[in-house]
Every structure is written in structure tokens, then in C-alpha cells.
């Protein structure tokens, strides 16, 4: 008899999706300067490694509310955007990623079309060919990030006016 590992089973994937949706619903009233998606449809794409994606998302969402601090890379010191990303991946998966947004954008890996984003993908923002911000995609058009001085780690919509106008692409870290 063949037993499917729990993290690869369809039941686990559905359970994880429900847990993530419930978590997002609970965070839905947190302060955000972004508006809900404006008509863009995000296809639900299953992550290649659902267990890893789930652990990254749960850790990142658990840090919502942590103060922003330029150069910060721990919950105790606060986070800047790339500090948040590198902390979450190192803490949950022992994966050491580059430290800056620009270096993260340059990592090898496929660029991901917006309609193919999946939980755990890195989303990048900038202008004129420069990347200066990064977040972790959580699903349903939302991402978690450390936005700016005086703010806290929060969830925002990719389709929010500011983020939509500065979106430069995405990379898949989990394969």
C-alpha cells in the first residue's frame, strides 16, 4: 500500500489554503493604504512545495505589526523590506538569500507572470529599471512587506494604486 506524505496530499493543500484564507480574512481590517484588487484575477497556483510555502507564509503573517527599521533584520530590531524576506526564509527553511532588494531581484530563477504567482513568491517594486522594494506574495493578490519608516510590517494588495504603479516583477524562490 502506498501512503502519500501529508504535505503532498490534496487534502493537506486544501487545508493549508483554508488556513491561509482564514488568516488573510483576519488581517483584512488591518490598516493599509492599498485598495482591494481592481478587477485583476489571480489564478490559484499551487506551490511546488506546499509545506515550505505554508511555513513561510505563517511566519511572515505572524510578523505583521512588527515596526519598520531601516537595516533591521530581526523581530526584536524591526525590519526593512529585504530584512523581513531574508529573516523569514532563513528562519523557516534555513535558506540564506541575498540581503538587498536589488540582489534578491537578481537571483537566478524564472520571472513569474502576475497571473501565475503562488504563495512564497517574491514580488518586486521600483521604477526606471531600479528595484528598491520586495515583499512575499501570500495569495489572492496580496503580499506581506515592511513598507517604510514609521510603519509596520503589513499586508497590501498588488493592485493598490501605489504598488501597481511600481510593480517590476516576481521571482520564485521555492521550487
From TrEMBL:
Q: Which domain of life is it from?
A: Bacteria
NlpC/P60 domain residues: 50-174
Q: Which GO terms describe its biological process?
A: proteolysis
Record carries keyword Secreted? no
Name the keywords, alphabetized: Hydrolase, Protease, Signal, Thiol protease
Give the signal peptide as a residue range, or say none if absent: 1-25
Q: Does the keyword Zinc apply?
A: no
MF annotations from Gene Ontology: cysteine-type peptidase activity
Give the family, as the similarity comment puts it: Belongs to the peptidase C40 family.
Return the protein name: NlpC/P60 domain-containing protein
Annotated source species: Stenotrophomonas humi
Amino acid at each position: 500500500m502506498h501512503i502519500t506524505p501529508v504535505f503532498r496530499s490534496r487534502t493537506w493543500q486544501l487545508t493549508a489554503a483554508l488556513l491561509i484564507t482564514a488568516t488573510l480574512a483576519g488581517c483584512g481590517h488591518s490598516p493599509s493604504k492599498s485598495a482591494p484588487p481592481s478587477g485583476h484575477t489571480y489564478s490559484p497556483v499551487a506551490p511546488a512545495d506546499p509545506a515550505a510555502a505554508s511555513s513561510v507564509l505563517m511566519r511572515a503573517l505572524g510578523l505583521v505589526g512588527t515596526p519598520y527599521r531601516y537595516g533591521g533584520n530581526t523581530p526584536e530590531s524591526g525590519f526593512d523590506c529585504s530584512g523581513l524576506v531574508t529573516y523569514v526564509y532563513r528562519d523557516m527553511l534555513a535558506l540564506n538569500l541575498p540581503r538587498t532588494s536589488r540582489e534578491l531581484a537578481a537571483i537566478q530563477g524564472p520571472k513569474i507572470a502576475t497571473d501565475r504567482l503562488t504563495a512564497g513568491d517574491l514580488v518586486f517594486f521600483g521604477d526606471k529599471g531600479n528595484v528598491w522594494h520586495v515583499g512575499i506574495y501570500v495569495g489572492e493578490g496580496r503580499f506581506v512587506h515592511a513598507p517604510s519608516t514609521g510603519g509596520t510590517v503589513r499586508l497590501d494588495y498588488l493592485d493598490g494604486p501605489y504598488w501597481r504603479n511600481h510593480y517590476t516583477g516576481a521571482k520564485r524562490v521555492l521550487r
